[in-house]
Automatic annotation (TrEMBL), chains A, B:
Residues 17-465 form the Aldehyde dehydrogenase domain. Gene3D superfamilies: Aldehyde Dehydrogenase, Chain A, domain 1, Aldehyde Dehydrogenase, Chain A, domain 2. It comes from the Bacteria. The keyword Membrane does not apply. SUPFAM superfamilies: ALDH-like (SSF53720). CDD domains: ALDH_KGSADH. Keywords: Oxidoreductase. InterPro entries: Ald_DH/histidinol_DH, Ald_DH_C, Ald_DH_N, Aldehyde_DH_dom, Aldehyde_DH_Superfamily, ALDH_KGSADH. This is Aldehyde dehydrogenase (NADP(+)). Pfam families: Aldedh. It comes from Halomonas kalidii.
Amino acid sequence: MTPQGTSLIGQSAVTGDQAVIRAIDPASGESLAPDYPGLDRDAVARACELAETAYATYRESSLKARAAFLEAIAAEIEALGDVLITRAMAETGLPRARLEGERGRTCGQLRLFAAVVRAGEWLDVRIDPALPERQPMPRVDLRQRHVALGPVAVFGASNFPLAFSVAGGDSASALAAGCPVVVKAHSAHPGTSELVGRAIQQAVAKCNLPEGVFSLLFGSGKEIGQALVADPRIQAVGFTGSRAGGLALMQTAQNRPQPIPVYAEMSSINPVFLLPEALEARGKEIAEGFVGSLNMGAGQFCTNPGLVIGVKGAALDAFVAAAAEAVGGSAAQTMLTPGIHAAYADGVGQLAGEAREIARAPAGEGPHQCQTALFATRAGDFLASEALQAEVFGAASLVIECDDLAEMHAVAEALEGQLTATLQLDDGDLDAARMLLPVLERKAGRVLVNGWPTGVEVCHAMVHGGPFPATSDARSTSVGSAAIRRFLRPVCYQNLPAGLLPEALQDDNPFNVTRLVDGKRE
Amino acid sequence: MTPQGTSLIGQSAVTGDQAVIRAIDPASGESLAPDYPGLDRDAVARACELAETAYATYRESSLKARAAFLEAIAAEIEALGDVLITRAMAETGLPRARLEGERGRTCGQLRLFAAVVRAGEWLDVRIDPALPERQPMPRVDLRQRHVALGPVAVFGASNFPLAFSVAGGDSASALAAGCPVVVKAHSAHPGTSELVGRAIQQAVAKCNLPEGVFSLLFGSGKEIGQALVADPRIQAVGFTGSRAGGLALMQTAQNRPQPIPVYAEMSSINPVFLLPEALEARGKEIAEGFVGSLNMGAGQFCTNPGLVIGVKGAALDAFVAAAAEAVGGSAAQTMLTPGIHAAYADGVGQLAGEAREIARAPAGEGPHQCQTALFATRAGDFLASEALQAEVFGAASLVIECDDLAEMHAVAEALEGQLTATLQLDDGDLDAARMLLPVLERKAGRVLVNGWPTGVEVCHAMVHGGPFPATSDARSTSVGSAAIRRFLRPVCYQNLPAGLLPEALQDDNPFNVTRLVDGKRE
């Protein structure tokens, strides 16, 4: 299969007639065929109409059928073979090993959600049986399950062209919940998007599902995305990208006659706190781990460690020196797009204006390459500057020098919401950590000890989320099995005859799911 | 204890110096002492600051301590004795039996949440243990629990001066979640609010909790409420009231530098579908049940049946005749406030302009009384009129005459989001019910068969919620134990040493809660 330059509306391949998107190989600056002409608003409406039609049956598909569909998507993606990897390499500048790993993660994620669908915990079945003899009033029979919200709009991210894009976490969790998905393709990797889209399209057909379960739309600029979020049939939005982009979608979603939830993952600088004993004992090792994390994917991870906080002194100086050495030895890396590289250069320039430059990686040979950058500033200056809290997307980080642990605490308190917060600590640091932990819990979706925030495990306990502006909705996660909850709502059934009750709620528990019966877990 | 005319900020009683609120006895039109001078914005900020301080410790209070606090509130409310009931009767025009029942429900609700807190399901503990040998990459130890969002603003409703007000469902669920609560008192029942507020204040003191766990603010107009929602320390909002009021709070919450979730329960007309066999067999009985539900609390229930849909013919005519007779025999009832009565009179006037009046209850002797009103119109006219879908708060309902079941289905499809949808059916109606059920599930938070929507059981399976505009957030419920989830967010802990792990996540499961370990329920 090779990319054809088409959008996918249900089972049809559709060639738009609006402004054209063309991928650019960031490693060469050359554009890649084919052209992707954008769709118009009518095409958006058609995709939403198909999704609405599909919703009627897809949301009640059996747990088995839905799980099999998710597994079929994974199999179809794998069946694309190397064409997917080579196209993604050309469109993103990311290396083969990374993209092969990301494909594994994407397919593993789909299979995890298949298992989650089968287990049925997400239904959250609750049964309060009738109590006809209760005084002063009898109780009627009341049963609750969760149902799919409706068609979901998904906006893929540029930095994970597989795992956070067309068949990424948002699509997988929405499909798992029983929601048809309409994806607005990211313009940075159209060919990759189309290939994965065709794999999903194929899986829809093979599983005999209604075609509207999945559509993939191309459109340059913001119009198509805004039209999608404004469409009355869309009932929720998943987005990973910039703060400005997420805020714009939140606004559109709130201004609809019927407001809808937006799950936007936007902006995080992922602070790392170096506690004194750990810094003293293993400063050099921590510095190397830090720069390794900073350099991952050219720093284009949402969990990139953009802030390192320590108490000033010889140990911090030694850490900074070791980090500077590692930064100096870092190879230049091609960034995802020319635009991202330009924004990175701007952001580094702004940091340079406000903070001391500690080290910069040497320039490479290709265009659009990031040179890892390390800056430092005093906590007092950081606390006084809003600009220093802004995310620089790419390998750049800022060391904050605090006078003491109290000032470190003040820095923690001043932070905006984050995806992650990390503590580097040794046994003697536990008291200091206990002071910081309640602050960090409030600021971040995930708190780590002696690790690095890059690398997000796809599992049941993961939270890839966090308070605003890390995300638009701290009450959920975009990675891990709990993400299915984003796309569900509870419905209560009062006194329904057995013949009308949804299968999940029937007395004999045909789905064999855990249930809360009269408040007791069974 | 008698009402003093004060706000409560933490353990202090505070007398404002802004415009005065004074309760009005709607049965006599006379105003009731004392005056409640409104607070200024500084007082709002003080209450939020205290709440923020309290949050630090209250959110980590032990399950036992928090449950005991909720039970202490219930006991303190009961200890107020008859002074609470007589004051609430005077302020609302509601009869004694209703208010005594509502007090029982309010205290029962607090005790239910105490049990929920102790059981600890709400923590949603998930543990994915480390897999150091996993290939190609080891897995680190990951654990998830839910934590309280932060201080919550609660806006009580006028129609349930106890169960949806100062110590009502929103306060109980937020306190259960570990969130301090700042209540903006409803101006319609200030004395009732103060008495209940003092009971909570007392419980805070007796339980040795930080005073900021609870504050109660009086202020006329919208300024204090808007200031409260805009305060940066407030992290979520619970509201029950009008659509316009809810929308205004949603707007304020979205326009904050950090947007926050708003749980507004606003507007619902609670359609009742009369299926043919049931209508034929028990039309008269259904008509009596319907008018009984319509008249409850002078129709001032959010679940009041404001819409009845049937297929035209002799059976529907007989139902309408029986309902008209019951309406004609309904006693006039005092409404909650002069303002609500005026809005009711307007709404009934508008219905009279757009639909046929079927029956009207006779006038009573007091002021501000509702006379139950029944109207009818053809489905075609209903589908063409937006005004006919607007909620009339109070005992008024509209019968929709459909040509056939297909038109009944079209009416269902055209409805806005609802708290409830009801089916009256007999065995022969099951096929028709199966056609409607998927539509109703999408429109409503609760679907009932052969019952009436008024009367909301406080239990585990209840959903008192539903799609917009019934509520601002269909993903939750404002009644029942699942309401605790509104005020929680997940946090993931990666690789924390045992000495730093929150108690809920420790290996030996000290809280003895159900856990999801490696995806398996234990």
